[in-house]
Amino acid sequence: MKREAVGPAVLVESLDQEGRGVAHVEGKVIFIEGALPGELVEFASYRRKPSYEFAEAKRIARASASRVVPRCRHFGVCGGCSMQHVEPRAQVAAKQRVLEENLAHIGKVVPGYILSAIHGPTWEYRLRARFSARYVTRKGALVGFRERHSSFVADMRSCEIVPARISALLVPLRELIASLDIRERLPQVELAIGDAVDVLVLRVLELPQSSDQDKLRQFASRHRVQLFLQPKGPDSTYPFFPLDAPPLQYRIPDYDLIFPFGPADFTQVNHEINRVLVRRAVTLLNPEPGERVGDFFCGLGNFSLAIARSGAQVTGIEGNAALLVRARENAVRNGLVERCQFIERDLFAITDEDWVTLAPFDSILIDPPRDGAMALVKAIGKSPPARVVYVSCNPATLARDAAVLVHSHGYRLSAAGVVNMFPHTSHVESVALFELA
């Protein structure tokens, strides 16, 4: 990545959605990595466009009171975190501003009130992670996140956002992979942590033979982890050793729920924040016994079963058939099968006619991926529920969909607030409540 010479100090005005400082120089917008609002910063550009530039901070001439020393020694090289130099409370405030600005500028909507931010521990919080692996002749095996602005694997020997016992495994894991015959055929290691077991899923482009299998078993025994192998797509994942490990599962104690899951299933990376988020979403929905509630993009039933605990009848709709199997199993496991049904439907292609066959609902919850739920929010105007709770992982698509709900379907945006699911990153999760005006 080519960088130009360091220029004179500029005043940083704000943070953008990626956690970069925003400044203006001669009418051009400069996005400066590592810079904070209110700082005077000398920067070096690495990409120039006619109306904007991307740059890195090279010297802080006047520092913000929100600046802190990054805890991780790999910060700045590793692409896993972008905001460790920002005090945690300031991170949350910045994400709240990003949410409000997206709602105002894209959706042309303003929340009736701002929900208190959901936040929790800022270190060792990540219980799901996908590490890249690569064998390099001069360095041996590397295991870690990608470098910033690069496809190279960061030379990581620790990680502050995963539990300490997992961070301590990075070097032994590198040594293990370097010792394997298939070391150049193992591109990925995925982490999945449950209440009673730590799982590592090894993506293998070639199945390990006898000598490699022995090394893998010894590693699993020594470090008290369970190893899975994934020779092809996610559906090919299977347990390798030990075979008698406890099942992967997480709990939501407020609703007396247990969720078994597979290491390839989608679950939230931060179980503690997920518990608070579920409580917040159910409180906003306020389901009553006998009401009919729809849970769209329901996954393995993370919200569905908590809603059903209230006595409501829940219909979970999801496009992933494997997750629906898991949702049905979880409903049985938690004694809620009589209050839940689960339907497979492509929610990115849902039509008005599809909606009519599913509705009416007293209220619905929407928890889409980053692309949002445009087709769904357009369709619900045919028979709108009284309340919509929208859990979002992308403030831009939330704002876009909010515009449809408010300006086309007559809802008001009653409340919205951020969920700090990923501390030290620029990732903005949020929850919003829409009610018919």
Q: How would you sum up this structure, described in words?
A:
The protein is α/β, with parallel strands linked by helices and 437 residues long. The protein has three domains: 58 residues, Nucleic acid-binding proteins (OB fold (Dihydrolipoamide Acetyltransferase, E2P)), CATH 2.40.50; 198 residues, Vaccinia Virus protein VP39 (Rossmann fold, 3-Layer(aba) Sandwich), CATH 3.40.50.150; 110 residues, OB fold (Dihydrolipoamide Acetyltransferase, E2P), CATH 2.40.50. The protein is 25% helix and 28% strand. Strands 7-21-22-20-19-16-17-18 form an eight-stranded mixed beta sheet, sandwiched between helices. It has a six-stranded mixed beta sheet with strand order 1-5-6-4-3-2, with no helix packed on it. The protein has a six-stranded mixed beta sheet with strand order 9-8-10-11-12-13. Helix 1 crosses helix 10 and helix 3 packs antiparallel against helix 4. The longest helix is centred in the N-terminal third of the chain and has 20 residues. The chain starts with 9 loop residues before the first strand and ends with a strand. The relative contact order is 0.11.
Write the layout of secondary structure elements.
Layout: E1 10-11, E2 14-15, E3 21-25, E4 28-33, E5 40-48, E6 52-62, H1 88-107, E7 113-114, E8 128-136, E9 140-144, H2 164-167, H3 170-179, E10 188-193, E11 198-203, H4 210-223, E12 226-230, E13 238-241, E14 249-252, E15 257-260, H5 271-285, E16 292-296, H6 304-309, E17 313-318, H7 321-333, E18 340-344, H8 352-358, E19 363-366, H9 374-379, E20 387-392, H10 395-407, E21 411-419, E22 429-436
Parallel strand pairs: 4-6, 7-21, 11-12, 16-17, 16-19, 17-18, 19-20
Antiparallel strand pairs: 1-5, 2-3, 3-4, 5-6, 8-9, 8-10, 10-11, 12-13, 14-15, 20-22, 21-22
Helix pairs in contact: 1-10, 3-4
